[in-house]
Amino acid sequence: MLLAARRYRGALLALGITGGFLLLYLIYAWTLDFGIFLKVIEAQSTTKLIGLEALQDLVNGKIVTKYFGRGWYPWLLLCAALAAFRRQRGLLVPLAVYGMVIAMTADYRVIYGWYRIPLYPFLCVAAGCALEEMIDEANLFRVAPFAVMAVSTGLLYALPASLTGTRWAVYLFALAALVPFLPRLISERPWTVRAARLATAVLFAIFLVTSLVTIGGLLEIYAATRGLP
Fold it and tell me: Taking a C-beta distance cutoff of 8 angstroms, is the pair 170, 155 a contact?
């Protein structure tokens, strides 16, 4: 696409970034155990059951046999879908192409987490565009999907079940994610705008903090997630 638009510098930059990520991937494999990495690649190239089930696996956010990401991943997909109506619609091209590549080459019984790595940069760019619009608008229609899918997921992963598994947790979440935006729906006044913007900032901060906490305890969280029934 960049070459067609004669944006040669941009195409070169994209190629350089892609090569850099591939190099980092190989360094990562070498650091852990390059022999095991090669054996895994060899095993994956010998036996494959290929089918449309792989595409469903991609949209479900499943890593190997465990569902992980929960609301985060659907929210990223929603942001990508919204990009179709923005000038960032070009983000959908690599997502669609790579998704089809996985469907045509990967064993749909076990789609490993690293297969998804090339998807994330494009999904995150789409999410960044959506977040920019959400923070700028600070209204219920833009914040609600983010709060319900992304913020709640972060809280579930970062907080103990004794806190998140109560009705009071739901009440408090509704209080933070819904109530501050209702006055602005009724009347567009300076104080209603400020309340909505403050609530948006608080939800965004919770999202960032819980994401960092999740990263810190990723191994324990992933080990505790439920597998396939």
Answer: no
CA dihedral 170→173→177→180, nearest 10 degrees, is 110
Q: Residue 200 pLDDT > 90, yes or no?
A: yes
C-alpha span between 72 and 218 (Å, rounded): 14
Compute CA distances 62 → 48, 85, 92, 196, 207, whole Å.
18, 27, 20, 34, 21
Enter the DSSP assignment of 188. Answer: -
**CB under 8 Å to 213, separation ≥6 — which residues?**
154, 157, 158
Query: Are 108 and 51 a contacting pair, CB within 8 Å?
Result: yes
Read off the pLDDT band of 118 (50, 70, 90).
confident
Amino acid at 135: I
Under DSSP, the state recorded for 106 is: S
Residue pair 154/208 in contact (Cβ under 8 Å)? The answer is: no
pTM score of the predicted model? 0.75
φ, ψ of residue 66 in degrees (nearest 5): -120, 140
CB 225 within 8 A of CB 68: yes
Contacts (Cβ under 8 Å, ≥6 apart) of 119: 58, 95, 98, 99
Nearest to 196 by CA among 223, 219, 178: 178
